[in-house]
Design brief:
Strand order of the largest sheet: 3-2-1-4-5-6
Order of helices and strands: HHHHEEEHHHHHHHHHEEEHHHHHHHHH
Number of helices: 22
Strand content: 5-15%
Helix content: 55-70%
Radius of gyration: 27 Å
Length: 529
């Protein structure tokens, strides 16, 4: 600080920190909130993107017998096999996969999905579904996972700093929460930012802190490096694994799946397994591992169960009692993922996530609104301002428009198209990239205001097209799903219409708004007059 310049107080320093820590990783944070909010409904999105699957998730004895027959016929001599039971929220069938010697699990021809009710093979379109949206919010895409997680971790740390510095900066933040004023330019943007920040402030603290806990060893790998030769050694020590048994070389039928499940339910007070792993299926030394379903709110978590494949007798486990640190970490992960939540709490979390989307978006827009008023010529801003304005358009509207394109591609791409799932994802980024290029182009041409309206209108159109296309290409459109009580499809289509209405309303309001000159521009106009 130069001599004679007034010394900054704590609040001014926090304001500077809040501004720049919020802006620089703000675009990454916005994307994390958008995709993370969608991830609260990943299984329901899975269900909508696989319309060939029935809404039935209970596995019938007939389907288990069919799965036994498939594994006996197709996985004989395999090194391992896996059976995944459908998630209770839908979106998946009875999935079988196996790995022959020298092959990778799930290679073409080594996996099959059965209908959980009939046991017949289900012909399902290839898609990553809601799982991709969930993974993207911390693994990103088109880049190494470790680099992506490091970037996400840094952005989450910045979010935590922005939250705390924001609370210090806005001394009247809780008073201002009740002062949402519309049509007041910069004041309105600040009010919207404050309101969306205060409304679910505990959720932001919880989701940010627990998100950092899930990426603990990405940010702080030194404890592992000091105590273990590599990460695999840590995972082997921290997590139980099936007893290592070599194949006996003698063909002995593996016990039926129904018996495995009944044994597990007896050990877990009625809880079902989610996945069953079988090492050396059909061999005298076959080993079965049953993984329990996630414990619900107030329900205990059960350890994995190991069985001898030939006799069904329990095998000894090397699982150790969880220490306090591991139990605490598990609570953090459960809080972040909210797998325990019922639909009421899940919707509450999703609306809180949308609050985070609004908070980051209004903060990014406020950066431009605030600085435009100070520009010598607001109609012709400098390079840096135009760059930020173009990036704001590209990220704030590009990511939701990309998700809309992802859903539309699910219905439009040919059923048997090679690499179909990959092209659904490519569609998302092609659309997103198009918005980014358009936004930057319009911002550098000084037509950013028009670009906002154009892209908002396009978002509204694409989201409105999703339920329409669903009705034209499947038998589970709103006309059928609502009377049938098919709430996964009905809820998804209604949510898309609500988003379409929100984007269209915002586009209309922006188009109707009269251009208000910035204060400095107004002063010059008054002097000229």
């Amino acid at each position: 600080m130069t001599q004679g310049q007034p010394k900054q107080g704590l609040r001014q320093s926090m304001a500077w920190l809040h501004t720049w820590v919020g802006l620089l990783p703000g675009w990454v944070l916005y994307v994390i909130f958008v995709f993370g909010t969608a991830a609260f409904f990943q299984h329901e999105i899975d269900g909508w993107m696989r319309p060939e699957l029935s809404s039935e998730t209970r596995v019938s004895p007939r389907a288990l017998a069919a799965a036994d027959a498939v594994l006996k016929a197709r996985a004989a001599g395999a090194e391992s096999a896996s059976v995944s039971l459908p998630n209770a929220r839908g979106g998946s069938g009875l999935d079988l996969s196996w790995r022959m010697k020298g092959q990778k699990r799930g290679e073409t021809g080594n996996r099959m999905t059965l209908d959980p009710a009939t046991g017949e093979q289900a012909q399902i379109r290839a898609t990553k579904g809601g799982y991709f949206l969930y993974r993207f919010h911390f693994d990103l895409h088109y880049m190494p996972v470790m680099w992506a997680r490091m970037l996400v971790s840094i952005a989450a740390l910045a979010m935590l700093v922005a939250i705390l510095s924001g609370v210090v900066t806005h001394k009247k933040i809780f008073t201002d929460f009740f002062m949402l004023r519309f049509g007041k330019g910069q004041r309105s943007w600040l009010d919207a930012h404050n309101a969306s920040a205060v409304l679910v402030l505990p959720f932001y603290l919880m989701i940010t802190y627990t998100g950092l806990a899930t990426l603990l060893f990405t940010l702080m790998p030194w404890a592992l490096a000091a105590n273990f030769p590599d990460r695999q050694a840590f995972y082997k020590a921290a997590y139980a694994a099936a007893p290592e048994r070599e194949a006996g070389g003698k063909a002995v039928p593996t016990i039926p799946l129904a018996r495995m499940i009944e044994t597990a339910r007896g050990q877990w007070d009625g809880a079902l397994p989610t996945t069953i792993g079988i090492d050396h299926p059909g061999d005298s030394n076959a080993t079965i591992t049953l993984y329990p379903e996630q414990g619900g709110w107030g329900r205990p978590s059960y350890p994995s169960l190991y069985l001898d494949g030939a006799s069904g007798a329990p095998l000894p486990s090397n699982q150790t009692e969880k220490g306090a640190a591991q139990a605490t970490w598990r609570v953090m992960v459960d809080l972040h993922m909210a797998e325990f939540a019922g639909y009421g709490l899940r919707w509450l979390l999703a609306f809180s996530g949308l609050g985070g989307v609004a908070m980051v978006a209004t903060g990014l827009c406020l950066w431009c609104v605030k600085r435009r008023a100070r520009l010598p010529d607001p109609a012709r801003p400098h390079f840096g301002f135009r760059l930020v304005e173009g990036l704001n358009i590209g990220f704030i509207l590009g990511s939701p428009l990309g998700i809309a394109a992802y859903f539309l591609a699910n219905r439009l791409l040919p059923f048997d198209m090679p690499d179909r799932a990959a092209w659904e994802i490519n569609s998302l980024f092609i659309a997103w990239g198009g918005v980014l290029v358009w936004g930057l182009g319009r911002a550098f041409a000084c037509h950013a205001a028009r670009a906002w309206i154009e892209m908002l209108a396009l978002c509204g159109t694409l989201f409105a097209a999703i339920p329409l296309l669903n009705a034209l290409t499947t038998t589970r459109g709103l006309g059928q799903s609502l009377p049938a009580g098919d709430w996964v499809f009905a809820g998804f289509d209604l949510a898309m219409l609500a988003l379409a209405g929100g984007f269209a309303f915002t586009a209309r309001r922006l188009a109707q708004r009269k251009a208000r000159p910035a204060p400095r521009q107004r002063a010059r106009q008054e002097i000229a007059a």
